[in-house]
TrEMBL record:
SMART domains: TPR (SM00028). NCBIfam families: tol_pal_ybgF (TIGR02795). Residues 33-101 form the YbgF trimerisation domain. This is Cell division coordinator CpoB. The keyword Metal-binding does not apply. InterPro entries: CpoB, CpoB_C, TPR-like_helical_dom_sf, TPR_rpt, YbgF_tri. It comes from the Bacteria. Residues 1-19 form the signal peptide. One of its GO terms (cellular component) is outer membrane-bounded periplasmic space.
Length: 245
């Protein structure tokens, strides 16, 4: 990347030299004052050329930084998608190893009777809430479903994901106060979870929406400090740079 910028600077320098050539004057003739004046004009012309070239190089560097930031954001988004995919595969594998909710059919009435929601297993209860989001698109109904799961299975292996799902649904709904509390729960109770850094990024976004750039920077900087070399840290750095503009 540096080599590309250097080569571009060389070509720009050549172009600038052709566009604004330094005046060629014979400084040997004339009085001493004439020679000094001609020499000063030559120096000023060269300084102007160098200044213009530096401006073009700086513009190129800014473009490179912008492209790098965009690339990092796209990489982060792709990594989140892949992570969620792997997570869903793991959850499906767990579901397949457990017995599904029994369905009893009476011969007399031929009516199917399913197990009530309150008596669902831990995995079935979680999957029911997830399906409301991914399959049924019932986002409003998914909120109490995740709340019910969190209340019934506070120590579940799905708890971190359930709290993050809940926080994200509240965030999308525009209920920033409750979303903030839910994201904070993920950070406080599940610091080792992969959702912790994502929750900090979202808290930074909420702070930005509430016009508190100082707080947003603190959340982003925390991600950079605690999750170095991660995709979330790269996005946090990009957000910090954007807030400084």
């Amino acid at each position: 990347m540096k080599r590309a910028v250097t080569i571009a600077a060389i070509f720009l320098g050549i172009g600038a030299a052709h566009a604004a050539p330094s005046p060629v004057e014979d400084i040997a003739g004339g009085t001493k004052n004439d020679r000094v004046s001609r020499l000063e004009r030559i120096i000023k012309a060269r300084q102007q050329t160098e200044f213009e070239m530096q401006q073009r190089v700086s513009a190129l560097q800014r473009e490179v930084l912008d492209l790098r930031g965009l690339n990092e954001q796209q990489a982060y988004q792709l990594e989140q998608i892949l992570q969620r995919q792997r997570q869903l595969y793991d959850e499906i594998a767990k579901l397949q190893t457990q017995q599904s909710t029994p369905v009893v059919t009476t011969k007399e009435s031929n009516v199917s009777v399913t197990t009530p929601t309150g008596s669902l297993s831990e995995t079935d209860s979680y999957q029911r809430a997830v399906n409301m989001v991914l399959k049924e698109r019932k986002y409003e109904e998914a909120i109490p479903a995740f709340q019910e799961f969190i209340g019934q299975y506070p120590k579940s292996s799905y708890s971190a994901n359930a709290n993050y799902w809940l926080a994200q649904l509240l965030f999308n709904k525009g209920d920033l106060s409750k979303a903030k509390a839910a994201f904070q729960t993920v950070i406080n109770k599940f610091p080792e979870s992969g959702k912790s850094s994502d929750s900090m990024i979202k808290l930074g976004k909420i702070a930005e929406q509430q016009n508190d750039k100082k707080l947003a920077k603190r959340y982003y900087q925390r991600v950079v400090n605690e999750y170095q070399n991660s995709a979330a840290a790269r996005v946090a750095k990009s957000n910090i740079a954007r807030l400084k503009e």
